[in-house]
Amino acid sequence: MGEMATAAGVLGADLHNKVNNSKILVVGAGGIGCEILKNLVLSGFKDIYIIDLDTIDVSNLNRQFLFHKQHVGKSKAMVAKESALKFNPNVSITAYHDSIISTEYGVNFFKQFNVVLNALDNRVARNHVNRLCLASGIPLVESGTAGYEGQVELIVKGKTKCYECSPKAPQKSFPGCTIRNTPSEPIHCIVWSKYLFNQLFGEEDGDEEVSPDTADPEAAANAGESAMATDANEKGNVERTSTRSWAQSNDYDPEKVFTKLFHDDIKYLLSMADLWKERRKPSPLIWSSIPEIANNGQSTGQGLKDQKVWSLKECVEIFSESCRNLSAQFKKLPEGDHMVWDKDDVDSMNFVASCANIRAHIFNIQRKSRFEIKSMAGNIIPAIATTNAIVAGLVVMFALKVLQEELEKCQCVYVRSKPNHKLQQIVPEKYLSPPNPKCAVCSPKPEVTVRLDVNKQTVKDFVEDVLKKSLNMVAPDVMLMPSGSIIISSDEEEMDISRLALTLADCNIIDGSMLEVDDFLQNYNLTVKIKHREPGRDDPLFDVIADPDLLKPTEEAESDKNGSKNGEGDAKGYEDDDDDLIMTVDDEQLVIPGSSSTKRKVEEEASVPVKKRRTGNSNEMLATPVEDDDDIAIIE
Ligand SMILES: Nc1ncnc2c1ncn2[C@@H]1O[C@H](COP(=O)(O)OP(=O)(O)OP(=O)(O)O)[C@@H](O)[C@H]1O
Ligand SMILES: [Zn+2]
């Protein structure tokens, strides 16, 4: 009784009633999701669905307060439900231990809710929920945090921009040649070491080669001339059956592995002389005479072991030890099974940190502490419980406004690490951001151009890399227009598997071809125009361009690459999928929809009043007169 009266008292009878009768879906039961669920239960929501695919890890316990030690290893969704019910046993909570990206949760599933609240940690799932909410016409409250920064926004089809309206900063990826032949930054060595882990102990992936790449266009002229080059195959990989079988046949002996990777392969690279014409040469290391190279003044933190930069000798010792431990673990696995790299596993992390530093030394790159490597390798920004709590509070406030049909009050809100000049740390935008009319997802007739080499791209890579990884589809069907001939069918029985190995050109897909792509799971149709292009050494294998204006060779389009990189072709970077947050202060993200050249960052940096600049903007809603000049307060 008392509880009911309190809730109605705070919300008012009308909203209280709406809250009582609404049905809500929470996607994700992690840092933000737990907070949201608690807020919903305490605000009087009575019918809540929650879904999470994961189980509880020890590292979640510091901030995901619905979970305790005894829950480690159990389903997040199920435990979150049980814990939240303790606050109010009269609430109905339906929990799914499952991925939201599965066929069961299609448009009809989404349609039963009044509002969907995202509490996810990766772009793939966020894009997917975005599409399903657009397709089912259900409002979506999207949220994310990164350390002290956070963001909450409402997405309603036709009224606001969608999650995919503005291009996200491309996930970092590096050309294979840089990783394998010519690293120049610590991250290149870290990525290489993670690949090495997978080649030796993890899931072997042909895109994660660690041996010298003799097909490097920069060295093509003289690759293969050295005495050692006899074993290079036509794909440019030094033939050693596979790195793994080579290591296995040598019983993972640290000295042999070391010599192969850090001496022989480096000698081989040196033989590709063209690579070193304008670069500093790498220096091969000899196992029996590792030079004494100490921390040489690099930052050593405040004495914390993890924050010291290991000496080269220490690196080699740690490499040996972790290599031995990992191979012992690996041998215990059933035939065909493999390990999964985990930043929190001591040996896995030590292996990557030591290999990265040894390689860095060889290439004259600064070595890093284990701590720094861990955050780079895991691509981690530590989660802050308070930011999650603030964001989750805002999410539920947004949900209340949606129920009251006050969409105009749901401007995007930013939580900032430092106060702005008005001393605000929780900063709303002044207006709802309108949809981008050229959005490849929510515009009335979505269309993109994909530039690639039609003679090299295989159908399989087109599906996996372009349609799935870059355009985030789940089960695409592809028809070549205007004939309507089926190139790819998501129905396995209909699909001619032998076609996957063909190139696009083999299937008559050439420069200027038009494809109709349909993902029935997402209710998403997209027209894809193909533009033939042969990528250079450091170019991604393909790129996706949503805004046709960017293709015109005008000065502006050339000088402003924003928006031209919706998807990064070479998706072999160091990104983990649970890393990208919607909030960054990277100007890549700050593109105003509909305008290819105006960036908010630019607006703030220039002292020209925003009002003035806005009038020149082609976009109707953004051109609305503003009250004062500092309306958009997001920018660092
Ligand atoms: N496709 C998906 N379907 C359902 N839940 C998902 C999906 N993708 C991610 N999630 C869940 O979203 C939640 C995001 O929470 P959070 O950002 O706190 O991550 P975490 O994995 O709990 O912590 P951390 O990544 O910091 O170790 C996670 O519990 C994750 O399992
Ligand atoms: Zn959109």
TrEMBL record:
<feature type="binding site">
    <location>
        <position position="162"/>
    </location>
    <ligand>
        <name>Zn(2+)</name>
    </ligand>
</feature>
<dbReference type="InterPro" id="IPR030661">
    <property type="entry name" value="Uba2"/>
</dbReference>
<feature type="active site" description="Glycyl thioester intermediate">
    <location>
        <position position="177"/>
    </location>
</feature>
<dbReference type="Pfam" id="PF14732">
    <property type="entry name" value="UAE_UbL"/>
</dbReference>
<comment type="subunit">
    <text>Heterodimer.</text>
</comment>
<dbReference type="GO" id="GO:0016925">
    <property type="term" value="P:protein sumoylation"/>
</dbReference>
<comment type="similarity">
    <text>Belongs to the ubiquitin-activating E1 family.</text>
</comment>
<feature type="compositionally biased region" description="Basic and acidic residues">
    <location>
        <begin position="550"/>
        <end position="574"/>
    </location>
</feature>
<dbReference type="GO" id="GO:0005737">
    <property type="term" value="C:cytoplasm"/>
</dbReference>
<feature type="binding site">
    <location>
        <position position="76"/>
    </location>
    <ligand>
        <name>ATP</name>
    </ligand>
</feature>
<keyword id="KW-0833">Ubl conjugation pathway</keyword>
<feature type="binding site">
    <location>
        <position position="439"/>
    </location>
    <ligand>
        <name>Zn(2+)</name>
    </ligand>
</feature>
<feature type="binding site">
    <location>
        <position position="52"/>
    </location>
    <ligand>
        <name>ATP</name>
    </ligand>
</feature>
<keyword id="KW-0479">Metal-binding</keyword>
<keyword id="KW-0862">Zinc</keyword>
<keyword id="KW-0067">ATP-binding</keyword>
<dbReference type="InterPro" id="IPR028077">
    <property type="entry name" value="UAE_UbL_dom"/>
</dbReference>
<dbReference type="InterPro" id="IPR035985">
    <property type="entry name" value="Ubiquitin-activating_enz"/>
</dbReference>
<feature type="binding site">
    <location>
        <position position="442"/>
    </location>
    <ligand>
        <name>Zn(2+)</name>
    </ligand>
</feature>
<feature type="binding site">
    <location>
        <position position="165"/>
    </location>
    <ligand>
        <name>Zn(2+)</name>
    </ligand>
</feature>
<feature type="region of interest" description="Disordered">
    <location>
        <begin position="550"/>
        <end position="636"/>
    </location>
</feature>
<feature type="binding site">
    <location>
        <begin position="28"/>
        <end position="33"/>
    </location>
    <ligand>
        <name>ATP</name>
    </ligand>
</feature>
<dbReference type="GO" id="GO:0005524">
    <property type="term" value="F:ATP binding"/>
</dbReference>
<feature type="binding site">
    <location>
        <begin position="121"/>
        <end position="126"/>
    </location>
    <ligand>
        <name>ATP</name>
    </ligand>
</feature>
<keyword id="KW-0539">Nucleus</keyword>
<dbReference type="InterPro" id="IPR042449">
    <property type="entry name" value="Ub-E1_IAD_1"/>
</dbReference>
<feature type="compositionally biased region" description="Acidic residues">
    <location>
        <begin position="575"/>
        <end position="589"/>
    </location>
</feature>
<feature type="domain" description="Ubiquitin/SUMO-activating enzyme ubiquitin-like">
    <location>
        <begin position="450"/>
        <end position="534"/>
    </location>
</feature>
<feature type="compositionally biased region" description="Low complexity">
    <location>
        <begin position="217"/>
        <end position="229"/>
    </location>
</feature>
<feature type="compositionally biased region" description="Acidic residues">
    <location>
        <begin position="626"/>
        <end position="636"/>
    </location>
</feature>
<feature type="region of interest" description="Disordered">
    <location>
        <begin position="205"/>
        <end position="247"/>
    </location>
</feature>
<dbReference type="GO" id="GO:0031510">
    <property type="term" value="C:SUMO activating enzyme complex"/>
</dbReference>
<keyword id="KW-0808">Transferase</keyword>
<dbReference type="GO" id="GO:0019948">
    <property type="term" value="F:SUMO activating enzyme activity"/>
</dbReference>
<feature type="domain" description="THIF-type NAD/FAD binding fold">
    <location>
        <begin position="10"/>
        <end position="439"/>
    </location>
</feature>
<dbReference type="GO" id="GO:0016740">
    <property type="term" value="F:transferase activity"/>
</dbReference>
<dbReference type="GO" id="GO:0046872">
    <property type="term" value="F:metal ion binding"/>
</dbReference>
<feature type="compositionally biased region" description="Basic and acidic residues">
    <location>
        <begin position="232"/>
        <end position="242"/>
    </location>
</feature>
<dbReference type="InterPro" id="IPR033127">
    <property type="entry name" value="UBQ-activ_enz_E1_Cys_AS"/>
</dbReference>
<feature type="binding site">
    <location>
        <begin position="60"/>
        <end position="63"/>
    </location>
    <ligand>
        <name>ATP</name>
    </ligand>
</feature>
<keyword id="KW-0547">Nucleotide-binding</keyword>
<dbReference type="InterPro" id="IPR023318">
    <property type="entry name" value="Ub_act_enz_dom_a_sf"/>
</dbReference>
